[in-house]
# Entry
Amino acid sequence: MSNITEYETVFVDRDGPCAVVTMNRLEKYNALNTTLRSDLYAALSSLMADRTVRGIVLWGGTKAFVAGGDIPEMLARRPIEAFVPTSGAPDLWALIHQSTIPVIAAIAGPCFGGGLELAMACDLRVAADNALLGQTETNVGLIPGRGGTQRLTRLVGATRAKEMIFTGEIIKPDEAYRIGLVNKVVPAGEVLEEAKAYVQRIAEKSPHSIAMAKLMINNGQDASLETALMLEQLAFATLFSTDDMHEGGEAFLNKRRPVYQGT
# Structure
């Protein structure tokens, strides 16, 4: 790896088209305080503006992904500060969801509360065999407040989401895979490389195709089928204006690997 960029609680490595964003607040199991959220937002925003980045891996090392919110900091908040639209805080979860660059969560160790919400905002999730996942806010008198009641429901269904949230249940990675919460489970020593391998595969495609596919999936699932299909057709037709679409077609006809430029 090269081109390491450091923030107070985050550092970024570049490995070709793949960027790895590592959360580095391990003494608190990467609990999400204001500094870590701000550093993540700054790091991710910078990478998302870089056209040479084709995918981002988000992880917290082999000890923990994110153990949840920073409880002492949360206890000091007023309601107006806990409500994202009026808090003035950057919406990290929306940034990831709305980005046209895929973000893959590499999950090892605890992934609780806001940490699971962070992972669910990502496009794909690779879990280590030592991962523990839970939407645990009801254990401290709260509910998920960064998308957990909505994204978990969309991923695993309302009945299983209710069970996890109501009970504050912590599940193991095999169960997370069984219910569709994670894409893959691998040994802890392989989780980062497995996530990076997803990016390498994605980087072989046109960035325009990937961006359009993400936009259609994210935005179409809450529209009527008729509206979503029309949006898909418009996105499909729009890609005919790109050089990458013609490169892909020519490469297929000439039995060679396409070289996409993102134009």
Summary: The chain has two domains: 2-202, 207-253. The mean pLDDT is 93. The chain has 13 helices and ten strands.
